[in-house]
Every structure is written in C-alpha cells, then in structure tokens.
TrEMBL record:
CDD domains: UBCc_UFC1. It comes from Tribolium castaneum. It comes from the Eukaryota. InterPro entries: UBQ-conjugating_enzyme/RWD, Ufc1. The gene is AUGUSTUS-3.0.2_15547. Gene3D superfamilies: Ubiquitin Conjugating Enzyme (3.10.110.10). Keywords: Ubl conjugation pathway. This is Ubiquitin-fold modifier-conjugating enzyme 1. Transmembrane segments: none annotated. E2-like enzyme which forms an intermediate with UFM1 via a thioester linkage. GO terms for molecular function: UFM1 conjugating enzyme activity; UFM1 transferase activity. Belongs to the ubiquitin-conjugating enzyme family. UFC1 subfamily. Pfam families: UFC1. GO terms for biological process: protein ufmylation; response to endoplasmic reticulum stress; reticulophagy.
C-alpha cells in the first residue's frame, strides 16, 4: 500500500512512545519532547535529501502549531500558511492540518481550510497510535496532499504564483 520512497521516509522518522495528550500534564511534556525530536529528525532528513518543504513552531503548551509549507512546481515556489491544533483525544485522534488561504478552493478540503485526510491517512494513523506524531502527519498527510492538489489547483488557475499576480 505504501511505495518504497514513502517507506524509506517513514523508517527514518523516529517513532514516539508516550501515549499522552495535552490533558495528561507531565506525560504531555514527555510526549512533546518526543514530538520535537521526531520533527527535528524529519526536517534534517528532508534538508539532507534537498527536500525541505515546511517550517513549524508551536505555542508554549505545544497545543497550537503554525508555520509555512511550500511546494515547488515548474521551478516556482508556492508558499502557504499551515496551522493545526492538537486534538483533545491526541494521539488517538490525528491533528486536522489546515491551509486557511486555500479554504473553498478544492473539494478535498473541509471548512476552515482543513485538508481531507480521511480515506488514506486516518486509518493508517489509527493503526499506529501512539507511535505516529506530528512529523508523521506532515510526511503522510500534508506532503502527499500538496503533491496531488497543488499542481491540480495551479493547472486550473485557482492557485497562481505570487510574482505572476503582483
């Protein structure tokens, strides 16, 4: 079900051990440390592979995440704001990643710019609780979504490069 490239990417992202969400106080602090270690490793792997495509940071509590993601198409960089909240039932429930500026521009999106991950990603997440974390959501959720949706939106003229519109 997963191609070799995805399998290789996944095997290089550290798995998480602590099953804790924001309501779990001390355990959440441990989980957050694991999340950051996993994210740092994933970002470093991407940079090493010349595949750097996002930046994320969180609020102090680690419950709200935000940053930028980008997609290169025909040698042009298309950049988008990305945001998500950690669900109350995390890690049993995957985060819902949103690209607010694309809200309403594709059928594969929910209100508020939340990308549709239900068919492919959520069952995989459910089978891998608590091992999967934010880095996995980016690698298996947002990354493939961008790769499929952004070229289609560009082809339809729904998304245009900022330099072409300015």
């Amino acid at each position: 079900m997963v191609d070799e490239s995805t399998r290789k990417t996944l095997s290089s992202i550290p798995l998480l051990k602590t099953k804790a969400g924001p309501r779990d106080k001390e355990l959440w602090v441990q989980r957050l440390k694991e999340e950051y270690q996993s994210l740092i490793k994933y970002v470093q792997n991407n940079k090493d592979a010349d595949n750097d495509w996002f930046r994320l940071e969180s609020n102090k509590e680690g419950t709200r995440w935000f940053g930028k993601c980008w997609f290169i198409h025909d040698l042009l960089k298309y950049e988008f704001d990305v945001e998500f909240d950690i669900p109350v039932m995390y890690p049993s429930t995957a985060p819902e990643i949103a690209l607010p500026e694309l809200d309403g521009k594709t059928a594969k999106m929910y209100r508020g710019g939340k990308i549709c991950l239900s068919d492919h990603f959520k069952p995989l997440w459910a089978r891998n609780v608590p091992k999967f974390g934010i880095a996995h959501a980016m690698a298996l959720g947002l990354g493939p979504w961008l790769a499929v949706e952004i070229p289609d939106l560009i082809a339809k003229g729904v998304v245009t490069h900022k330099e072409k519109t300015g």
